[in-house]
Design a protein that fits this description.
The chain is of the alpha/beta class. 50% of the residues lie in helices and 9% in strands. It has a domain of 150 residues: Rossmann fold, CATH 3.40.50.1110. A 5-stranded parallel beta sheet has the order 2-1-3-4-5, with helices on both faces.
């Protein structure tokens, strides 16, 4: 009887030992992916929510895939224009400000110039527009997809223009818009976007477009929206960054004039 209990105990100990050994050989659970802090709580939360985008569809090609497939090629006589950019473009209701015009909105909120380069063929070149209006860079300064040097942003601008030029698409480069911190909800956006860097990129864009070989038109929204302190006029952007209806009302005729200039320069 004692011998039977002895073997039962020994068997139990061996089973426990084997179980512990198997568990010890299992890989330790990996920690949830994280990204470095930017120093801004709101931006950190935004970037954390975008991990799936950054890893699965960095350029967000899926956003306009179906809409692009449904578009018919423009007629030879049609002066189609693609508005290409981030949230400032994304929220712009082109049909309200340019009724009846063959203008296509391809803005995606939060995007930076590296993301725009990834989707430039699908969302611009393949649509065969005569003109593309590019409004970008503010999210690069903020660091939405990580820290970026000004020279790297400028290189992306140049690459976008070269891709367009190679496909006979006239480029209109919009200045970056000013920002303000006059309201409580504007302070976070303002803190992420250095007015000095905005001015530096605008100066580079203006100089780039001034070179005849670039073939680009410079659209200076900044000078129309800035106040005497160098900030966005308070009544034109409720959150300090995104134009409201009053802001877009100022921008629309400026965009139309730039489009006419770009189209005129493309004629023989």
């Amino acid at each position: 009887m004692k011998s039977s209990r002895y073997f039962q105990t020994l068997t139990f100990v061996l089973v426990v030992f084997l179980a512990v050994s198997v568990l010890a050989q299992q890989p330790a659970p990996t920690a949830a992916p994280s990204i470095p802090s930017t120093g801004f709580a709101g931006l950190d939360q935004y970037r954390a929510r975008r991990i799936a985008v950054f890893t699965d569809d960095f350029g967000q090609l899926a956003r306009y895939r179906e809409a692009n497939a449904a578009l018919k090629p423009p007629a030879p006589s049609e002066s189609s224009v693609v508005f290409f950019g981030d949230s400032i473009t994304d929220i712009w209701h082109l049909d309200e400000y340019f009724p009846g015009k063959p203008y296509i909105n391809r803005g995606i909120g939060g995007q930076t110039t590296p993301q725009m380069l990834v989707r430039f063929r699908q969302d611009v070149i393949d649509l065969q527009p005569k003109v593309v209006i590019i409004l970008a860079g503010t999210n690069d300064i903020a660091g939405n997809t990580g820290p970026m040097r000004l020279e790297d942003i400028e290189a992306d601008f140049a690459s976008l223009a070269e891709l367009a030029r190679a496909n006979n698409i006239k480029v209109i480069y919009s200045s970056l818009l000013p920002v303000h911190n006059y309201t409580e909800k504007s302070k976070d956006f303002f803190a992420q976007r250095s007015p000095e860097k905005i001015l530096a990129l605008n100066n580079w864009l203006k100089s780039y477009c001034a070179v005849a070989s670039s073939g680009c038109v410079y659209l200076d929204y900044f000078k129309a929206l800035v106040d005497d302190k160098g900030l966005m006029k308070q009544d034109l952007a409720d959150d300090g960054l995104h134009p409201n209806a009053a802001g877009f009302k100022i921008m629309a005729p400026m965009a139309e004039a730039a489009i006419e200039k770009a189209l005129a320069s493309s004629k023989p």
